[in-house]
Design a protein that fits this description.
408 residues; Growth Hormone, Chain: A; two-stranded antiparallel sheet; 2% strand
Length: 408
Amino acid sequence: MGYETLVGPVYLAAWAGQIGLPESELPWITSLPLLGAVGQLLGVLALSRLTRKVSLKWLCIALSLVARSLWALVFLLPLLSRFSTFAADGARQIGLLATLSSAIGLTSASLWMAWMKGWAPRRFEGRFWGFRARGSTLGVIAAHLLAAVSLHGTRASGFALLLAIALLSALGSLAILTRIPSVARTPAETEAPDQSLSLKDLHWLIVLCVFQAGVSFVSPFFPYYFTRQLGLAPSEISIWYAITQLGISVSAIFWGSRWDRAFSQSAMAPARLLRLTGCVLALSPLLYVVNDIAILHWAAPIEFFCNGLAWAGLQIGVSSILFKQAGRAQVMRAGLLFSLMTAAQGLSGAGASWLGGWTAHALQDWGGFRALWALGTVLRLTIAYWVLPLLHSPNSLAISPKVSQAPG
């Protein structure tokens, strides 16, 4: 997670603001990594037959190694030594590299999901994701703190150091993955993986896409706004994002247990949790309508912490619902659903990110990004209250007939 954080959209957007990339280029560089999610769907479908013969563990590790090694190519780009005056062409090169790495890395993540499906006990899936969230946030917090040190001051070359740290983190995580045992698969799983797509799956994917669009309409632009328009140091922004991860870490175990209880209480309990966490996240952009750095210095860390509390609850719930949606018979179905989810969210997120950047530019006379924060809050609240609870709607769960086959 440390590696994913340091090469993710947050620091890509912060880097764009640091080097003074024009706003017209911002939607492009923030949406490209999201499109990698579409490429990973093609990867999973292409490898579906291979997974019947090859260990999920080693296939996952091999793809992760390739994806992470691609970032080493950045050091060969001739413009790297001129980060402070990096042209739009150089930014596009890195954006394309991020897309390819994301596509291969997410293919590996889909296989990891299938691999872990064999480990999580059914009654403890919420707690499984809770413990996983707590462990992963330690890496993310460390990554943000290292970023704060690396990006201290105004030297854009700090981003090169950040990439070196990311690659070292990637090597460390791969070494840990090799120590986790493989999960034995039954003959039924190796001979005929279930790749059918039901109406229930379509309902689930549509809800996730709408929610992702609401998030991506505003979220990719915060680091750019903080560095470019408010003049905040990237190191301070790193601290804020570390505080979000602290909120996730301290609440992850609670949320894991709470989701396990919700699934056993009533059909509507999960929907209420989705609405609660979604609405808290929806209010996140509203604070930044206040264009006062003095206020943001003390208010933003509080908001980022509360954002982490709500985000932990929502993501643990979505992951638990994904495992339940996949069923128990086929471990590869979890990987397929994860692949479909990330591809669909990638498309909707990239489109919403592009639309958000265009909207901010079009609303310059009305406040630019500040107008975008207000508009985004209304959009998010609408989705969180009315759409997100349908992710675990009792009516949708009653739909069972298979109507089509997944592509491939």
